[in-house]
Design brief:
The chain is mainly β. It has one helix and twelve strands, in the order E-E-E-E-E-E-H-E-E-E-E-E-E. A hairpin with a 3-residue loop joins strand 1 and strand 2.
Length: 202
């Protein structure tokens, strides 16, 4: 799913192709993959505020089915065909807006929320050290790289060059000798939508 504030979303946006880590230091400023402040759009729930109905509160663990979509309807993530996801409300394991949308929901209730880029994975940044061209020789092993593939990379902040931060980068260009990667989150700059069903309050 979409990630929590400090951990990133737990489920990636669609199946991720695993690649070898990029060993070369990537100098630049690490941009947070998640935004700390988020808000839900107007979502209509399928059930009213009936007295006596159990509703999710902060501190509850809930089981959730969800589908994440882009503005054009493309599904980037869903667990509807699999198992419901357990979420502890308040643990910040998912996007804040997603977590807040669960508060007040009753078992069986459904709602749809919209997140602007600033509420989801942030704006797309073309500068600030987010795009890097590296020699292929800097990779740990020879890989069958292709555009769109995602790799794990160590990025170093100029103020703390001894402490790398692992980030996911996307291959955006390949030559015979170099690979260009983008450290923006794959969903950066995009509005996203979630259709949520609260299955159970544990």
């Amino acid at each position: 799913m979409v990630a929590g504030r400090a951990r990133g979303m737990r489920a990636a946006a669609g199946p991720k192709r695993e690649g070898e880590p990029v060993k070369a230091p990537l100098a630049g400023v690490v941009v947070s993959l998640l935004v700390g402040i988020a808000s839900c759009s107007d979502g209509t729930s399928s059930q009213g505020e009936d007295a006596g109905v159990e509703r999710a509160r902060a501190g509850d663990t809930v089981m959730v089915e969800y589908t994440g979509k882009l503005a054009d309807g493309t599904i980037f993530e869903s667990n509807v065909e699999g198992e419901a996801r357990g979420i502890l409300i308040g643990a910040e394991d998912v996007l804040p807006a997603f977590e807040r949308a669960l508060v007040g929901m009753a078992p069986g209730e459904e709602k749809r929320i919209e997140l602007a880029p600033e509420e989801a994975f942030g704006p797309y940044r073309s500068g600030e050290g987010m795009i890097h061209t590296l020699p292929l020789s800097s990779l740990a092993h020879t890989l069958d790289l292709e555009v769109g593939q995602q790799l794990n990379a160590a990025m170093f902040h100029p103020d703390d060059p001894e402490k790398p931060v692992m980030v996911t980068v996307t291959v955006i260009e390949l030559t015979d000798d170099t690979v260009t990667v983008d450290a923006n989150h794959p969903l950066a700059g995009k509005s996203i939508y979630f259709e949520i069903k609260l299955v159970e309050i544990l």
